[in-house]
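User: C-alpha cells for this one?
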Amino acid sequence: MWRRSTSDPTAAGLQRAPLRAGRCFSDGQFEQAVGIALETRRLDKLEEAVHRSPDTVAILTYALRVCQDLVVSRDFRFEVRGCCGAPRCARCRQR
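Assistant:
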C-alpha cells in the first residue's frame, strides 16, 4: 500500500543541499554551488565556492549578479554583498 510522506520535502531538500554543494565542488561546477548556497542561505558554502573556484573574479561577479536579480530579501542581499566584499552604497550605510 502506498503511503503519503509526512515529511516536508522543502526541509529535506535543504538538509541535502550541502551534500549537493560538495558534489558541485568535486565536479568543478562552482556556479551551481553558488546557486545552492544562495537558495539555502548558506554563506559558508558561498565563501567556499568563491575560494575553491579557479576564477575568483568570475564567480564573485556571478554570485553578485544572481543575488541582485533573484534574491528577494533585501537583508540577505546585503549579507551576501558583505560576504563577497562588495561595499554598500552610502545611502544604505546611513540606515
